[in-house]
Automatic annotation (TrEMBL):
GO molecular function per UniProt: flavin adenine dinucleotide binding; monooxygenase activity
Domain of life: Bacteria
Xref: InterPro entries: Auxin_biosynth/cation_transpt, FAD/NAD-bd_sf, NTF2-like_dom_sf
A Pfam family this chain is assigned to: Pyr_redox_3
Segments for region (Disordered): 125-149
Record's keyword annotation contains Transmembrane: no
PANTHER family, per the entry: FLAVIN-BINDING MONOOXYGENASE-LIKE PROTEIN (AFU_ORTHOLOGUE AFUA_4G09220) (PTHR43539)
UniProt keyword terms in alphabetical order: Oxidoreductase
Protein name as annotated: FAD-dependent oxidoreductase
Annotated Gene3D superfamilies: 3.10.450.50, FAD/NAD(P)-binding domain (3.50.50.60)
UniProt biased composition (Basic residues): 131-147
Source organism (scientific name): Marinobacter lutaoensis
Length: 600
């Protein structure tokens, strides 16, 4: 129990002393008794060489039995003053393991741990060369073998991938691959990024003209180089593209543009990948030890197979190929889908005087951008949060400290408040026939994103057009068949059409594994994303963490990296540390390697 009249700091220090003493004993697993019966320990690489949440004392005890003596966690310290609210004490911690330094977060209730987060931050013998360890840059003194910085960079660019092989190959040069590449560069892991587009940032530039980030700037920083203070809150796609191109150059990344991966296979005997790429039309064979698919959280575009598609005389394409609304003035446009891309595309078509109809097949979660920023994100990612001393790192760790099992309970009150605040907005949308939801359990946008990666729209204006009837709506139906100049819906009605946009989302990331490597390997690693919540499009059983993301998979040497800018930034650290440790030959026994329950 909590000591009467003790301060939060004293309560935390008392718990840490008992925790540390037990972990150092011959029975470290008994530290599980310092948790609530239903307490949580979420570990990001530090203890498990995995991304793993232990739920309840039995799971915590099992993990400690398997890992504590090898990892040797210790030197637990309060990093700053603890705080208390509503009977919950929260504290930031530092600690060490046998080979790493870490940061943590603790929640205590009545003297027992409710949640504990442990994260690896750096490898003791291989820290990043920054701050007091930064390189000099200049070579003082005289040397006949001197090379300038430019000469050394040019030599590296000429040799990597040809005369010497990268340790890590990242397929996909969007923000995920670029951010991970920057982390690995600072850890001195020889890394090559391959991207089929001609320039870094083209994956943004090539999207529809009106695309902007729907997440605010404080949520979207890249590793090491935050956006400047004058950067817009919601960044336009071409500005993001230019930033990524600049970032790639400034961070000195080895980036092969106009390069497409045509195939890969794992050489079990040599424990390396054989990867075939075409660079500027020329074949190159690469032999990395580690292969990272950084193709975003989405896989290959989902394009429905609708009878009559081949007879359509107008234009049809997936939302990922949509150029913008300029060419469709006066045209009859059908957009199949009702999530972010569908709304953005409908609004842009309307702005260009097209006749637009949205086909909404199932209910969608809508949240107004201002409400999301103020009520859901503002405490961690906002100008006010910055003023309150909430750094990007602290915001990321705070978010990570909430185990996914209980995260819905943190989010439900927020979205109840949003529903109350924007009740008239939702009433008018419903009156227009739009099918609304707030997730299966009312937990809102981010849980929907984690569970299924779809089913929502952050409203930046298109919903008002739907409510007013400016964007026409047909809800609860789909397209049954396509005729030369029209679509026939499942209710039997017919709509004239000059353009059909399939805003129908993307498959699992392991679709890229099937295309690049093999279906056998894709099935071996299984579905990416989702956590087994047994909600819509996230089938059980419960797994507790996102499937396959940023952690070891069932295929040796194969990793998946993706997510939004926030996730790519935060989790790239843990993926980079796992890769560095393997390159240096450190023991990395993985606790709790994820079983495969779903193939796609």
């Amino acid at each position: 129990m909590t000591t009467p009249h003790a301060t939060p700091n004293q309560d935390v220090e008392h718990w840490l002393a008992a925790f540390s003493e037990t972990l150092c004993s011959d029975t470290p697993e008994q530290a599980a008794e310092l948790f609530e019966e239903g307490g949580f320990w979420r570990d990001l690489v530090a203890m498990t060489w995995n991304i793993k949440t232990m739920e309840g004392r039995d799971q915590i005890r099992d993990m400690l039995t398997a890992t504590a003596q090898q990892r040797r966690p210790g030197h637990w310290r309060l990093a700053e003053n603890a705080s208390e609210q509503n009977g919950v004490i929260e504290a930031w911690l530092t600690f060490e393991t046998a080979d790493a330094r870490g940061k943590g977060h603790l929640r205590l209730r009545d003297g027992k741990a409710w949640t504990l987060l442990t994260t690896m931050q750096e490898l003791k013998d291989y820290p990043e060369k920054r701050g007091p360890r930064r390189p000099k840059g200049a070579q003082h003194g005289a040397s006949k073998s001197r090379k300038t910085w430019l000469e050394a960079r040019q030599e590296e660019e000429r040799e990597l991938g040809y005369r010497r092989q990268p340790y890590c190959l990242i397929i996909g040069g969007g923000q995920g691959g670029i951010g991970l590449g920057a982390r690995l560069r600072q850890l001195e892991v020889p890394t090559l990024i391959v991207e089929r587009n001609p320039r870094p940032g083209d994956s943004w530039r090539n999207r529809y003209k009106s695309l902007c980030l729907h997440d605010p700037v404080w949520y979207d920083h890249m590793p090491y180089l935050p956006f400047p203070e004058h950067w817009p809150v919601f960044c336009p796609k071409d500005k993001i593209g230019d930033w990524l191109e600049m970032y790639t150059k400034v961070m000195e990344l080895n980036y092969w543009s106009s390069t497409e991966c045509t195939g890969a296979r794992y050489d079990t005997e040599r424990q390396e990948w054989i990867v075939e790429v075409r660079r500027d039309g020329q074949p190159v064979t690469l032999r990395p030890k580690q292969l990272v698919l950084a193709t975003g959280m989405s896989g290959i575009p989902n394009i429905p197979d609708i009878p009559g598609m081949d007879t359509f005389e107008g234009e049809q394409h997936h939302s990922s190929r949509h150029p913008g609304g300029e060419a469709y003035k006066g045209k009859k446009c059908i957009v199949l889908g009702s999530n972010n891309s569908a709304h953005d595309i409908c609004a842009a078509l309307w702005e260009n005087d097209a006749d637009v109809t949205m086909i909404q097949r199932s209910s969608t979660h809508i949240v107004k951008s201002d409400s999301l920023m103020e009520l859901a994100l503002g405490g961690l990612y906002s100008e006010q949060a910055v003023a309150n001393g909430i750094t990007t790192e602290k915001a990321d760790l705070t978010f990570a400290s909430i185990p996914f099992r209980i995260m819905p309970e943190f989010h439900k009150p927020v979205y109840e408040q949003i529903q109350e605040r924007d009740a008239d907005f939702y009433r008018r949308l419903s009156k227009a026939g739009f099918l609304l939801d707030f997730g299966d359990d009312g937990s809102g946008l981010f849980m929907k994103y984690l569970r299924r990666g779809s089913g929502y729209y952050i409203d930046v204006g298109a919903s008002e057009l739907v409510a007013q009837g400016e964007i026409k709506l047909r809800s609860g139906v789909s397209i049954a068949r396509i005729q030369p100049r029209s679509v026939v819906l499942t209710d039997g009605s017919e709509l004239p059409a000059d353009l059909i946009v399939y805003a129908t989302g993307f498959g699992s990331m392991n679709g890229w594994a099937a295309r690049i490597i093999s279906q056998e390997v894709a099935d071996k690693v299984g579905k990416c994303w989702g956590m087994g919540s047994d909600t819509t499009k996230d089938p059980g059983p419960w797994e507790g963490e996102l499937r396959n993301m940023w952690k070891p998979t069932q295929q040796d040497g194969l990793w998946f990296h993706g997510g939004n800018l926030h996730q790519s930034r935060h989790y790239s650290l843990y993926l980079a540390l796992q890769l560095k440790a393997r390159m240096e030959g450190l023991p990395t026994p993985v606790y709790g390697l994820q079983p495969v329950h779903h193939l796609a």
